[in-house]
Amino acid sequence: MLLTYIVKRIIWTIPFLFAVSLVSFALIQAPPGDYLTTFAATLAQSGDMVDEQRLEALRTRYGLDQPFIVQYWKWISGVLQGDFGISFEWQQPVSHLIWERMALSVCLALSTLLFTWAIAFPIGIYSAVRKYSIGDYIVTTIGFLGLALPNFLLALVLMYVGVVYFGANVGGLFSQEYQMAPWSWAKVVDLLEHIWIPVVILGTSSSAALIRIMRANLLDELNKPYVTTARAKGLSEFKLLIKYPVRLALNPFVSTIGWAFPQLISGAVITAFVLSLPTAGPLLLQALLAQDMYLAGAFILLLCTLTVVGMLVSDILLALLDPRIRYQ
Amino acid sequence: MATVTPLRPKPLAQRAEAPVVLEVEGLVTAFPTRHGLFKAVDDVSFALEAGRTLCVVGESGSGKSVTARSILQIVDTPGRIVEGRILLHRHRTSRGKGSDDTVDLASLEPRSNAIRAIRGRDIAMIFQEPMSSLSPVHTIGNQIGEVIRLHEHVSKKAARARSIELLRQVEIPTPETAVDRYTFEFSGGMRQRAMIAMSLACNPSVLIADEPTTALDVTTQAEILGLIKRLQDDHGMAVMFITHDMGVVAEIADAIVVMRHGKLVERGSVEKIFFEPQHDYTKMLLQAVLDLDRPSERRLERRAVQPLGPPVVEIRNLTKHFDLRHGLFKRKGHVLKALDDVDLALRMGENLGIVGESGSGKTTLGRCLLRVHDPSGGAMLYHGANGVTADVATAKGAELAAVRRDIRMIFQDPFASLNPRMNVAQIVGEPLLVSGIASGADLRKRVGELLDLVGLPANAMERYPHAFSGGQRQRIGIARAIALEPRVIVADEATSALDVSLRTQVLDLLLDLQERLGLSFIFISHDISVIRYFCDRVAVMYRGQVVEVGETEDVCNDPQHGYTKALLSAVPHPDPRHRGMLGRHRYQAGA
Amino acid sequence: MASVLDPRLHTDTEVASQWRLMWWSFRRHTLAMVGLVVVIMLYLTGVFAEFLAPFDPQSASSRHVYHPPQMIHFIDSTEDGWRIKPWVQAYTLERDPFTLQTTFNLDEGNRIYLTFFGKGTPYKLMGLFPGERRFLVPENPRDRFFLFGADRLGRDMLSRTIFGTRVSMSIGLVGVTLSLMLGVLLGGISGYYGGWVDMGIQRLVEFVLSLPTIPIWLALTASLPPDWPPLTRYFAITLILSLVGWTELARVVRGRFLALRAEDFVIAARLDGCSEKRVIFRHMLPSLMSHMIASVTLAIPVMILAETALSFLGLGLLPPTISWGVLLKEAQNIRSIAQAPWLFVPGAFVLVAVLALNFLGDGLRDAADPYAQERG
After folding, report:
1. Would you say residue B548 lies in a domain?
2. Inter-chain contact C338–A163, Cβ cutoff 8 Å?
3. Is the pLDDT of residue B325 over 60?
4. Which CATH number characterizes residue B493's domain?
5. Location of each CATH 1.10.3720.10 domain in chain C
6. DSSP annotation of B474
């Protein structure tokens, strides 16, 4: 039963991934003109000679003069072999530029997710069990603030506090000396020393949302008749709480992988820009502004793919957790 | 096909004194509200005897459920016990030690270890809704084993073996595999059996059953009641059985407590309550049930004067299939035959009853007749007043609209069938307005007349449905149904949602309207007593087929088909002298 | 719980329509009432921006670069006694002759007097109705005052924030209206026709929901030509925001629609002889309405936040259009905020607006079904 469900679910993602790639390509195709026009204009502006032959060579290589579907085919067949094309702006293969940044993005998002869970789980339970207590009111208020405050604004405020009161720059993921250094144990330690600030910033709003969801769900579950049944068996209140209502209210936690994880990855774009983190966001932004289409396309495709995969993982976990889903 | 299990009625008289296991004295349970303390249970006293069944009877809001929960101290917050004692005499059970081991449960803290050790071990409880009362994400075995391991120090393996044994005791087939399955894989009756198995896990001396059969069909109810009785005989438990159904009470009770508005109205032995009721409320409850257990005299008188006319609706070979396949990965062969080759005829001025249990297709039949569902095959001929015959199964556009003016419907749920956003004048006037019969002041006048006809005051017009009680709402629904001067009315479980005392009133109203307006009724119900009161003929449905049709009295007194026999024998009679249900017929299709 | 619905306590409830009951249930929700008041005030601010702003939000002044915020006083005490008269303390600009760094110093003796409903620079309210009276202006038209400080071009932050309120609050409303039209149309079609149409639309919704919004928004806005006029860009951005936002509404509408279609009272309406149009508009829509209003209210803050984020990155609205996001772009650089922390003021407005809308939406959602409490 479970296996068929998982296989079905995985088969389902294939058309999704195809659609995602199509959308990504369409998006980077959308701007009027292509990168080469922009490129030629920039060159002309700075007084450089426009090498018509070179432009022509690039144009044929990427099929820029051909219909959309041909261009897409050239692009996607390259992607499937790990070739994401060339970044016109950086003058090097896209695949050289993206992987480390994507890895850091995923690492940041995963840390944030763990942080979110660690915060939201106990607080959500507390808030529901002690409904209308002072603690609950405080948590609810903070939750609302967390929802209303955009991450980048929080990042800005923290930067301001850091600079004005502590004289320290809270941006970046590495100290100066490690920025360019190759990966080493010391660099990882340095990363851990820096990563908590963006994690806290990114984690606030998703924690706030998750606490609200956890609280609402648990309140719902606490009133269900099976709780009374369990109580009538003679279970202690704590055991009962953990085994039944919390177990059922866990579902939204697992589905966070589906929605919070992609949200974190994409939401981090703006925060990463403010904090100048060496993750995917700032480079994507730069690529979009410069119409560096293959670089932007690679990032968008990877971010979309991560989202789809995140949903897949959360659906499978949900099926593991809740027998009702796999028997549908 | 039909098997008869041996009769084992318990003799009513000459019952020996049995030891009192649990005593409730002057119990008061209250909920603080904004308007002060609300006493949900107010000064209630009774006693439970080993091996005997005490039935607690009352209508909704009588406090019977809260009483049960008070005993285990599991009243929903913020309710709590304010006064009284709940004495558990453990020395009179197999578990007690010494000559006097009495605990006052009311004095224990709701979260204390002491009360927790009693819950599930000395006193076990089963609840009304077997689906929501069991956890959907834990296996049956897990939930039964939990109680065992909670109160007795046994290994997981031993607990599992005991769980399987318990499932076997409650007659769940293949308990070895059932133990690892989830509740949603079981039918309602099986879930209730699992629930009972769970409550029996630690051999309790008191079993509290809170409306355990209300959500079940009559045949399933009969089986569950039989099971509880058998287990009681085997284990010698005291059973406290909460119900609103006097039939069930008559069937199983040794003693009865009648409750109303949180207060104890009357208590006594089953004979005393049934044959010498003292309190008016008890008399009223009994009378309401007895009224329904025979044909309406008014209907019989009327039929003697005015015989039935020619057929007005003829249903021929009607079938309706529901496609159960969904999603992209369709599996073939998942078709539910909700109606399977149904033939029926309704005569002018006749009340045709359709009786059956859930899933029998009776509601689908009613809905097909109004084309809420499109039938898959067959014909439904309607002979109009002007002599024109229309096939409802294929009618379209104006023809269908005309049929729908002549055949109208009364719905089961008086809450869901009235648009909460419209007031009564709008609801009742809607059919008149859209068919262009009346508007403006004329419409108001017509609505006023209709309300008067169903016994509602004219000032009801401005009110919204939420301002009315269930019975009044059903009258609004009836007013809407008769607004277009129809000839046929399909009433789908029109009285099921009402308290017993209101049912006769609504049925009498329908009979009254029949006389005045010359109506014919198709009356769909699962309740044989209502059918017996109201219907001239009855069709019994089982799994989409009509298994038997005939004059109501003939079918009730001398059923021919095996299923009808099983159904009728499962209906509890509100007379403790005729405890026939335990020796009922069982019917298995295709067996 | 159901006290309001208990006819014995309130006889009015018997004749109270659904909207009345909702209002009664909503009124008990204190936070939602606060939210309602704040939201109304914010929208009024947006509507009367020209009247409320003391100055033209675009007028720059090199003498007032990063002018600090001034405290407003209402009681003026002079040698002659005291009077009620609003004033602010004047600042003088000083330039260090060597470093050329500028500082503002409090000019103790100098007070700038203000007057309510005085004449200021002429304007056209909403670009339509000419006027020159403003809510609060300096008595001397050549004076300037800065309750929220000034930005890097010496423009008044108060006036700019007020104009930003107009754009940011309206973008939420317009965006949600567009989402709603898309969502209701597709959700309604999906719920009404069912079958393959429903399948297709459901898959589409699932697909759009599985896209990471922010990168898609970024890519879409980046593809807008930068030379479009402000109003065109405004609508283009709104359209982009709503393209992603309609899915949630479509899901809500479809779900409610399907649930309602099976309700007995809707079947009853069909049997009463109502046409499909009447069934939908007279019987189903009123029930959908309350839930839709709540969903819409909760969708507005999402739009506002999205617009703020995009404009902050320079991909959304561009100057000279003023929105909270455009204003916050000024605070992007750490040196500017270290020097002028009042650039955060629009951020506070974002916070307040989003909170108020969330409170309001929560209250509406709870009140949307006044009958739910009765039965539950």
Report:
1. yes
2. yes
3. no
4. 3.40.50.300
5. 36-45+159-374
6. H
Put simply, whether C281 touches B (Cβ < 8 Å) is no
B418 to C16: CB separation less than 8 angstroms, yes or no: no
Nearest-by-CA chain B residue for A250: B137
CATH 1.10.3720.10 fits A94-321, yes or no: yes
φ, ψ (nearest 5 deg) of residue B266: -160, 145
- Kindly determine whether residue A289 and residue C222, on different chains, have CB atoms separated by under 8 Å: yes
Interface with A, mutate which of B138, B203, B208, B242 (most A CBs under 10 A): B138
Q: Where are the domains of chain A?
A: 94-321
Higher pLDDT, C256 or C2: C256
- Which amino acid is it at B474? Q
Q: Which two tokens stand for residue B468?
A: 């009315």
Fold annotation for C36-45+159-374: MetI-like fold (1.10.3720)
**Could B69 and A228 be called an inter-chain contact, meaning their C-beta atoms sit closer than 8 Å?**
yes
ipTM of the complex: 0.79
**Other beta carbons less than 10 A from residue B183's beta carbon:** 24
* Cα of A7 to nearest chain B Cα, Å: 12
Sign of the torsion formed by the C-alpha atoms of A319, A321, A324 and A327: positive
Interchain CB contact of C261 with B (< 8 Å): no
Total count of domains within chain B: 1
Tell whether the model's pLDDT for residue B93 goes beyond 80.
no
Which residues, at least 6 apart from C204, have a Cβ–Cβ distance to it below 8 Å?
C186
Q: Among all chains, which residue has been given the structure tokens 């989003």?
A: C354
A236: contact with B, CB 8 A cutoff:
yes
The ranges of chain A with pLDDT < 50 are none
Burial group, residue B153, by CB count within 10 angstroms (0-12, 13-18, 19+) = exposed
Q: What is the mean pLDDT of residues B369-391?
A: 89
C274 touching chain B per CB within 8 A:
yes
